[in-house]
Amino acid sequence: MSTASPQAYVLRGARPYGTDPVDVVLADGVIAALGAPGTVAVPDGAHEVDATGHVLLPGLVDLHTHLREPGREDAETVFSGTRAAAAGGFTAVHAMANTTPTQDTAGVVEQVYRLGQEAGWVDVHPVGAVTVGLGGEKLAELGAMADSAARVRVFSDDGKCVHDPVLMRRALEYVKAFDGVVAQHAQEPRLTEGAQMNEGVVSAQIGLTGWPAVAEESIIARDVLLAEHVGSRLHVCHLSTAGSVEIVRWAKGRGIDVTAEVTPHHLVLTDELARDYDPVFKVNPPLRTAADVEAVREGLADGTIDIVATDHAPHPVEDKDCEWSAAAFGMTGLETALSVVQQTMVDTGRMTWADVARVLSESPARIGRIDTAQGRPIALGEPANLTLVDPGATRAIDGRTQVTASANTPFGGMELPGRVVATFLRGRATVLDGAVADQMEGATR
Ligand SMILES: [Zn+2]
């Protein structure tokens, strides 16, 4: 056991939320000092980080990550996925429940929680399944998962929709007891049988079965009314259509306790990309039209959409490098999310860096009820969960060189703005000088 005090850091000239430069000292896991450049006391031996021009944000929090372990370690493990998260500037992720076995018992959510702690890259908060085996027929042990060491507060059958309205009502009622939230994957199953992509002009021209916007919107409309009826909290996963934004806007105006997320890919990519039948663009919900992209950007800017969540969905090559109809749905996102938000929302003047902190850290932490530890203000004494970004850098994206174990990024071959220079989890550098650490101190695998 080491008796040396943990490494301290001083970030020179960092710009919190993109504002005026300060020096920030990280020591003993917290923000130990913060002030005008050259005015703060720096502990002996502190590691100096030249943060000139770099934006300092609270560590990013993802409400929607697929880590694939247990069950599909060929796609991703808790270790590889959380290391990718750190590389992308995250300090906490919520791990979706569609593992094998399903995260539908206290035992499985505790297993994933412990794997996250052992890996040490980010805080891992398992999402609990709403129904046993994601089967949509019987409620899972929500209370036992909430009471477990993993303290589950977010419940979702993501990948599947809780389409039975009676079960959805019961789940919404049940989670109130422990201030939980049901995160719905809104997809009416009968309207999307065999669906391969967005239903519209492109699907008609290239002959793939379409997935109508109404299949998403009808479930969201039903669920906001159910949430209102039982006085519970609802979260809408990855909404993707202009109509969905309108429904959430209406529900919020009515005082319904609903929050919503959009993925980075739905902020920029459209169904036109399906024309070459490259399955890297096959995703659930599907890429929509340019008008939908504009509507979700507007919804994110005006606060109708609360957060950006990655829906990081790694798949091994054999599940993506095949014919469109046989390929798996999903794309990776942890290492590109911040860049896409910068490109689509900040560089276009629609959002400030303080807004980015809200949608990628503060609000997801609050929705997941982890906001006593994550998504905190950049202020004296707060936990040193921080992300340092160079917004002037550009990166060429290549799925083969990313940290995630899977290569299915839809941004391969593109240049994106912004680069994560450093990530700190309770004062430990998981990323430093633009490089992700080789092995986390205390990691056991
Ligand atoms: Zn989903």
Automatic annotation (TrEMBL):
InterPro entries: DHOase (IPR004722), DHOase/Allantoinase_Hydrolase (IPR050138), DHOase_cat (IPR024403), Dihydroorotase_CS (IPR002195), Metal-dep_hydrolase_composite (IPR011059), Metal_Hydrolase (IPR032466). Keywords: Hydrolase, Metal-binding, Pyrimidine biosynthesis, Zinc. One of its GO terms (cellular component) is cytoplasm. Zn(2+) 2 binds at D158, H185, H238. Its cofactor is Zn(2+). This is Dihydroorotase. Zn(2+) 1 binds at H64, H66, D158, D311. Catalyzes the reversible cyclization of carbamoyl aspartate to dihydroorotate. Belongs to the metallo-dependent hydrolases superfamily. DHOase family. Class I DHOase subfamily. It comes from the Bacteria. Pfam families: DHOase. PROSITE patterns: DIHYDROOROTASE_2. GO terms for biological process: 'de novo' UMP biosynthetic process; purine nucleobase catabolic process. Signal peptide: none annotated. The active site is at D311. Residues 53-241 form the Dihydroorotase catalytic domain. The keyword Cytoplasm does not apply. Coiled coil: none annotated. Substrate binds at H66, L67, R68, N98, N284, H315, F329, G330.
